[in-house]
Amino acid sequence: SDTERFGLPGWPDRIELTRSQVPELIRLEQEDEFTKMLERVEEAEERNSGLIVNSFYELEPGYADHYRKVLLKKEWHIGPVSLCNKNNEDKARRGKEAAIDDHECLKWLDSKNPNSVVYVCFGTNSSFSGSQLLETALALEASGQEFIWVVRKPKNEEEDAWLPEEFEKRIEEKGLVIRGWAPQVLILDDKSVGGFVTHCGWNSALEGISAGLPMVTWPIFAKQFDNEKLITDVLRTGVGVGAQRWVRLAGDFIKREQIEKAVKEIMVGERSEEMSSRAKAP
């Protein structure tokens, strides 16, 4: 069945997934542009003599060794590449133009206590429905935690129609909503940030790891469910929000209670200090 768990044979750790969390390229016979792109990537990998990887050996030595032994390929670890951005201006200018002035963002963060803010962002390719955004907003408010939430408004919806009535007015002391691109590395590296809610895209996951943050994992598609297992099962520096299905654009519908519980768990829960210490360990 789609929900029955199975172990991945031959992997260095005991990793379990369900059929619904496996990429469509493996699970389904039908082809589309996305699966064709993945096939081209695999074909290119088969033709080359090795990979340049945005990672570092100490993070996942068993998997680096497994790759070399099983596929007989070389690997060169050059990551985390986000650490090339040394000063705040470089961090703020990384990627697209931010939807918020970096000085305004830092001023807001400076007003908060160390490790008190949870940063919430789902990358550039994930688009939630209005109902899921509403559920997320209510969960963040109910958690009682200070937060920065980077959000893409759903297509075909009026501006801010997905927000609870007077939401930003109610949370103006506790929350900051950024509509569009955010200076993510700058925010994650700030001393006031103590947790990260992420879609588990590899760049974001590695930036969270580099910042030494415990994470709430909310995978949606591609290899994000695999990345989630690295964070929650191998490194043990995060908790899952409960996403169960590989869905290209919007993912599972996650209830506010699940989101609130996971956010509290990494910020103020019984295991929060343990996860934070483990995440910050050299």
UniProtKB/TrEMBL annotation:
Key words of the record: Glycosyltransferase, Transferase
Pfam families, A to Z: UDPGT
Transmembrane parts of this sequence: none
UniProt keyword Cell membrane present: no
Single annotated GO MF: UDP-glucosyltransferase activity
Gene3D superfamilies: Glycogen Phosphorylase B (3.40.50.2000)
Family: Belongs to the UDP-glycosyltransferase family.
Name used for this protein in its record: UDP-glucuronosyl/UDP-glucosyltransferase
